[in-house]
Write a structure and sequence with these properties.
The protein is α+β, with helices and mostly antiparallel strands. The chain is built from seven helices and 16 strands. The protein starts with a helix and ends with a helix. The structure holds 2-acetamido-2-deoxy-beta-D-glucopyranose (NAG) (2 copies) and zinc ion. One 2-acetamido-2-deoxy-beta-D-glucopyranose binds next to loops. It comes from Danaus plexippus plexippus.
Length: 328
């Protein structure tokens, strides 16, 4: 009896230490399916990532996003393998900031990290029309009034994550060479290196920062807190296959991190908004009393830059009657 009990006890201790030692992973008993057993919020109704169905998005024309400090070269940037991903952190103040768009107030940069897959057919967390991208960048910011990430995660508007997708290119993206050479020095879990060159955020981003999807969701890793205003930029960053391969060489305590993306979660009662550029032509704005009440405000503004054909078609249909009206 005693032997049996102590056996159970030892077994329980091993179980607990596996969960707490590794805390979470992407396969087996510490994989995404089991996160909810230890972290209740991972079973919530407003989780991330999601699939964005572009036929269901609501078009909006939000104020411009203001990027502060994104084009400054930053010294002493730390690159860390935390056993789940690679983190890029800024030591020196002031940190880059972001405001505008759907955001109320200033958000301060905390860290950025990446999600990737075993091969180039998958790896992104959010999907667009069920399309996966080989990698995704998350730039995490906390709301300035909350003063720290620790405090911010207690509030529904505590964090914003700027998400960028990657797609393949035949050529190396030169701005990523500094990151990939740092990666070769942090293949072991819990190792850090200081970047040898000053690092500028803008250099690693796509050109078009005006078109993005936005919705309310969660952290995509435990504790899965539902405190994130997501901004998913439509234009991907183009990287060479060889550059993405270097991420797949990073190791956790259990071997190479071959993939670190969470599967998509139900969208539930949420709406995804699609921001189109409000600076092209805004000549046919409608005064619709109904749209005044809803926030973010929906503006019917003309725009066709040859981006997404399906969306531009929808858009054309919604504008056509106004064009006709204006003609007569
Ligand atoms: C890519 O990886 C996934 C997951 O391991 C696998 O199911 C799929 O067959 C792979 N695709 C290719 C083209 O290797
Ligand atoms: C990392 O290692 C490479 C050699 O593999 C070296 O050239 C580089 O300067 C190192 N440090 C950083 C921060 O990239
Ligand atoms: Zn992430």
């Amino acid at each position: 009896m005693c032997v049996l009990l102590s056996g159970v006890l030892i077994y329980t201790l091993i179980q607990v230490s596996t969960i707490h030692g590794e805390d979470f992973g992407y396969d087996g008993v510490i994989g995404p399916k089991y996160w909810g057993e230890t972290y209740r919020e991972c079973r919530g109704k407003h989780q991330s990532p999601i699939n964005i169905n572009i036929l269901r998005v609501k078009q909006v024309a939000l104020p411009d996003i203001v990027f502060i400090g994104f084009d400054d070269p930053i010294d002493d940037v730390h690159v860390t393998n935390n056993g789940h991903t690679v983190l890029i952190e800024v030591e020196n103040e002031p940190h880059p900031r972001v405001s505008g768009g759907p955001l109320d107030g200033n958000y301060v940069f905390s860290q950025m990290h990446f999600h990737w897959g075993d091969n180039d057919t998958l790896g992104s967390e959010d999907k667009i029309n069920h399309r996966s991208f080989p990698m995704e960048l998350h730039m995490v910011f906390y709301k300035e009034v909350y003063k720290s990430v620790k405090e911010a995660v207690k509030h529904p508007d505590g964090l914003t994550v700027l998400a960028f997708f990657y797609e393949l290119d035949r050529h190396n993206h030169p701005a990523y060479d500094d990151i990939t050479s740092a990666l070769t020095n942090v293949t072991d879990p819990h190792s850090t290196v200081v970047m040898s060159q000053p690092f500028s955020f803008l250099n690693i981003l796509p050109l078009d920062l005006r078109r993005y999807f936005t919705y309310k969701g969660s952290l995509t890793t435990p504790p899965c807190s539902e405190v994130v205003i997501w901004l998913d930029f439509e234009q991907p960053v183009r990287l060479a296959h060889e550059q993405i391969e270097i991420f797949r060489e990073l190791r956790s305590a259990n071997g190479k991190i071959r993939h670190n993306f969470r599967p998509i979660q139900p969208i539930g009662d949420r709406t995804v908004f699609y921001n189109v550029d409000n600076n092209y032509f805004t000549y046919n704005e409608i005064d619709d009393p109904d749209t005044e009440k809803t926030k973010p405000k929906q503006k019917k503004s003309g725009h066709n830059s040859g981006g997404n054909i399906q969306l531009n078609m929808i858009y054309l249909f919604s504008v056509l009657p106004i064009l006709v009206k204006n003609h007569y």
